[in-house]
Amino acid sequence: MIRTMLRIRARPGAEQEIRAAWRTAAGQIGALPGNLRRELLLDANDPRTFVVATEWADDAALLGYENGPVAARLADALRDRCLPGTADDRRVMRDEPGGHPTILVDVEVTVPATRLAEFRRGHAEVTARMAGIPGYLREELLREPGTDVHHIFAEWRTAAEFHRWVANPAHAREEAGPIAPFLLDFRRRLFHLAAHPGADRAASTGRETDVHTTTDVLIVGAGPTGLTAAVELARRGIDCRLVEKLAVPPAQADKAIGVHCRTMEIWAEQGIAREAMDAGIWLTGNVVFVNGTQTHRMSWELPGLPYAHLGLPQYETERLLTERLATLGVRPQRGAELTGFTQGVDGVLATLAGADGSTQTVRAKYLIGADGAHSRVRELLGLTFSGGLGRFPQLFMLADVDVNWDMPAGHLLRFLHETDGRMDGMLVCVPLRGEGRYRIATLAPPRFFAQTGGRDAPPGFSEELAEPTLDDVQAALDRLAPPGTRAANLRWSSVFRISHGIVDRYGHGRVFVAGDAAHLHPPAGGQGMNTGIQDAWNLAWKVALAVRGLAAPGLLDSYEAERRPEGEEIVGRAVRLAFTDELDRADLERQFLQEMSLLLSYADSPLVGECVTDPDALRDGPRPGDRAPDLGGLTRRGVGHPLRLRDLTGGTRHTLLVYADASAEPAAVAAVPGLCADVRAATRGEIDVYLLLSPDAGEPGLPAPPVVRDAGGEFRARYGVAGTALYLIRPDGHVGFRSQPVDADALRKNLHLVFGGAR
Question: Which residues fall in a compositionally biased region of kind Basic and acidic residues (predicted)?
Fold first, then answer.
């Protein structure tokens, strides 16, 4: 006999729908050949958590069910009603020993309703006592809905350790004493943890197994871009699956270091900004030397920045995003490589190959390719690089070393050498966490190019070429760095070639590319990683609305319309900067803000708009498509500290800010509750509305929306509002629409561009 148990967690309010879906499926499962038992159990301590348990006569019966229409219908019925799960939520077990030593013990007891509180107190005490027993791992308390039957489901490391504990009456009596009165009449079943029968068959025969699974969104690539997309989808309750062909995450800093100010704002929204700051260092400025002479020095600690420029190795970025994703119940599936996909009007059918030779077929509504410079998704989608993929002729080397010079702390250092006005040497040094530790990038010694036979080396980091030595690093420092500079403690090194280009399209149908799968450029300040994170930040909220059936027909098309021009501009700028000391010395501050993505605007997007009758109205505020700047000085009744605007606009939904000052017509203010109700109905609740009042505006006494005071006048000054006005802020923090005075009809038309699918 084989038993499966699947743990699922209902979305708020969906508990009864899950019960109804199970009642329908249970009858169908019971009619299948080989089914012995099926039941829906409840977590006794969490009314929103269920366990679907089935028992089957043999492997064939289980596989027949899982690959058949009954399981598919049940999965479809549960998908929109459950939160995303993890691989640990499913357990397969047998009633006879197998290869796995772990055992699971199911103790079934009857607890009268009149003694339920006593039993639960006792069980909590038993769980605490058992924590120190050798071999005991964990347990959960389940109950059969509508009955007094409870199941104590315990997991032990080995059968021997369990039987040793049971065989000693004193031990069993001591630990289980608090619930001993309920164990006078109980049923105990012993199971052995097992692999899925498909995996067993593959291991024994050496043949591939084909496992079918479904999800809302399949994400290929668990780098920063893919992880960001997964976090944003999971935050919105969208079932997503993240796969990565690398079996283990990278452990060295051979990729991006710089984390831009805009990315830090995104991380603050995702809840990892503090952890990033704790793990990184601030990059506080840059210094440029040409032929040994300092040509300029700039501080990056500018007033008004939401965050400074952070130095953080990419492997740390991936660690933080992975840990955040785990709190949302999603973990990357490593060692799984995409080998192909097909798509139709309703979804995508993808094939994955496992490191063990197994294959899986995944059905998803959408697919996001975040699989890097050598993207398989890009290849299968038939995307090409506009104008071809460019490659710099030079080979470069990277190294992680300690340097003994006296340079300003936290500064990025660029040493250039020119002969007859032509640059023929370059050394870029980025500080890392640690005393005197730097990431160094420079031209590779000539012998590496000779190893290629004069042919193009492959783009990216080359495994075919030997690693540069400390002597190679020292030779570059001797030529370009201040006299007497010495390098030590080489941790790792690599040779690479810079490629650059951007794909002709960012997707087709239900498949999209993001990050390095869509654009490649020189590693100038971590542009690739930061741009990829912002690709995912832009795409994920739109895909989430599409999955839920709320998106207007053109919403997903806006991803390419908004992000491709930005990618094109960044690629061009990075290529121009690669071999110059600066692009525009006359306006270094603006250039830095541009590099940090703080000036990014989607002003040409088909999604954004405005309705302004006075040409001077809102002139000083952010334009449609601009990043909505944060500010402080807001107050709200019942809150004992000032609020920031991000306290209102943060989250996973749109935010409508309706402003009114003392000059506003009373009728216009009185109409705000009706406007609030209309937009919430039009978006199925996917919008938060706030009424922002100037300090001199009277109290309107409205039942809705919530009232916030612009006590410091910062909103009025920064957003340029007067009288009555409104700003619609998108989930990605950009202005979607604005009007002065409030124009409800124009707002509705704009919302229809996003939520045209809402009913």
Answer: 616-629
Q: CA 512, CA 532: separation in Å to the nearest integer? A: 13
Q: Which residue(s) pair with 413 in the sheet?
A: 287, 429
CA distance 517 to 380: 12
Please name the residue that has the structure tokens 């706030």: 690
Find the Cα–Cα–Cα–Cα dihedral 718, 720, 724, 729, rounded to 10°.
-50
Give the dihedral of Cα atoms 530, 535, 538, 542; nearest 10 deg.
-150
Is residue 297 in a domain?
A: no
Question: What are the structure tokens assigned to 139, written together?
Answer: 């347990």
pLDDT at 125: 86
Last residue of a domain, one of 545, 561, 595: 595
Longest dimension (CA), the chain: 96
Which 8-state DSSP code applies to residue 734? Answer: B
Residues with Cβ within 8 Å of residue 462, at least 6 apart in sequence: 494, 495, 496, 497
Q: Any idea what DSSP says for residue 349?
A: E
CATH number, residue 462: 3.30.70.2450
pLDDT of residue 204: 43
Are 624 and 581 in the same domain? no
State how far the Cα of 532 lies from the Cα of 514, in Å rounded to an integer: 6
Give residue 379's domain range.
213-283+307-389+501-595
CATH number at residue 634: 3.40.30.120
What backbone torsions phi and psi does residue 634 show, to the nearest 5 degrees? -95, 145
Tokens of 524: 């100038």
- Sorted by sequence, the CB contacts under 8 Å of residue 266 that are 6+ apart come out as 228, 533, 534, 537
- Among residues 561, 595, 629, the one where a domain terminates is 595
Quick one: tokens of 466?
């030997």
- Residue 418 main-chain phi, psi, to 5 deg: -125, 145
**Distance (Å, whole) CA 16 – CA 416:** 68
Dist. CA 623–CA 617, nearest whole Å: 11
Do 311 and 179 share a domain, yes or no? no
* Distance, C-alpha 105 to centroid of its chain: 37
Do residues 253 and 356 both lie within one domain?
yes
The answer to whether residue 693 sits within a structural domain is yes
* 60/197 Cα distance (integer angstroms): 8
One domain for residues 229 and 354: yes
Q: Residues of the chain whose pLDDT is less than 50?
A: 200-209, 457-462, 583
CB 93 within 8 A of CB 33: no
* Beta strand residue intervals within 44-148, DSSP E: 46-56, 90-94, 103-110, 136-143
In the prediction, which pLDDT does 203 show?
42
